[in-house]
């Protein structure tokens, strides 16, 4: 029994709620609880909210059956909830009516779901012998749907990072609040109702922008504070507030039909805060919060995770084995048992959804003793499925290349390039604010050490869900939004036409300008750093008040395809895809005068028509007529301007190249 207030609850019986909070459609949903005799209970009742996931909702109360009086002075009741279709769920409260006819209802609510697809145990995922790959036996689930081969043009693609909860609500918003996650559109710390179906309905928007690869935030069922997806409590189930497994399959299918690859963010480092550990310095050990009676806790899935010995306690303080942020449960990934469990869960998501890659969250907080066999095994499994260029992207947030390159032996296909991002961000404080961006575009920032698959294969970004938005960094340094937009367009040109794989974060195309902020905890009144203010809603949600005044507020119509920054990104993405030189060509600096005017040639040895770029990094207009292209690069009679971010142009005249550029302008042309 678990006792709280006047109630007691049968909570460790694996056949009833709340120990089991995921049921099959053919299973009875039984609840057993008791009321202390001192409260004079006449009969028990359950107050529930039902949502079938198809648009039908109901709020009702149902009378329980009386069972007995137990030895501790509690009158026991039981109830079987009305059946509900696959994909539905309940949120319920315990209650009773006393002998005077007064109703009483517990303040605390609990949830349960009906899902036929999600395995509750790793053993429910059939692992078959699939054959030999790289001379080693391969085991795993056979896919239940046709697999799509991997793209062979990752370098040409523009990536786009999505937090599902904040990207798009579906036209039918019936799944709002259908989760353990707190739903409150007024709070930047809670779910706002974005869904997988919402992403499906915006595929045309993404395609129009020029996006050809999306990175989806984790779809796991999350703890109450996990609107973002990074606090999982069930590793094998799609969170009902986001949709269903079938809905995720439909998203991948629709994306593939639009030539958009889908990368799924996954969490191998931790589970949500679930265990009460002994304080540091005390005897080692811990117990699940659910077992100890924590009102908001649940037992995690798969059921194999219900063992505290699979996690590191507070005695671990190093980067790899400590609890992330001090509260997320850190897997003992150094053990074979945990390693096999997590690898099997990764295979499950590939086989069930036909995704094209993984983004591995918190990669530097997991040891190489896990990553080396994991990456190798997922590569073999994906190759067996025909996905020979399946991406395995590591989110290693190290500030230097030396830190990140220490993970070379894992053989990730890509890293998210935080060191280069930090170099560019820090350069914004220099006299020539945009020099770091220009250095990146010109190819001056590769590290001296070699990455496993070359620096050019890494994913480059200017902002993401964990950083202050680049537009905020520009706007806060300038007098007005127009000047900030000039810098933004310059930066986007350097990013999308740069030497690495470019990735933008949802909202950049609509000039979102959020910043990292501070959040005051209600219980301790302590101020802590928070990233919720860089996770603004793409959809209309006037109920939420964002911090920091107008610089952190939206000034756009949702999904505006006519926005000038949207249009620029669309043009840049098209150019990158159409001109392989941008992806693989050599970048040769032809002119750099006072570090203000830069002229760069992008070329190869195959007689491909080279590309010429002119950049003005200064505060003054540039008008040059003496610039010439050395004869060794060929003879040219004209130029075809492909794009300019401002008032800039150049053309060939007798005696050289005439260049006119306004301050902070980027121009790209093809030499003819």
Automatic annotation (TrEMBL):
GO BP terms: carbohydrate metabolic process
Pfam families hit by this protein: Alpha-amylase
Molecular functions (GO terms): metal ion binding
SMART domains reported for this sequence: Aamy
Keywords associated with the record: Metal-binding, Signal
Annotated ranges, domain Glycosyl hydrolase family 13 catalytic: 161-576
Tree of life domain: Bacteria
Cofactor(s) required, per the database record: Ca(2+)
Entries under PANTHER family matching the protein: ALPHA-AMYLASE 1, ALPHA-AMYLASE FAMILY MEMBER
Protein's name according to its UniProt entry: Alpha-amylase
Organism: Nostoc piscinale CENA21
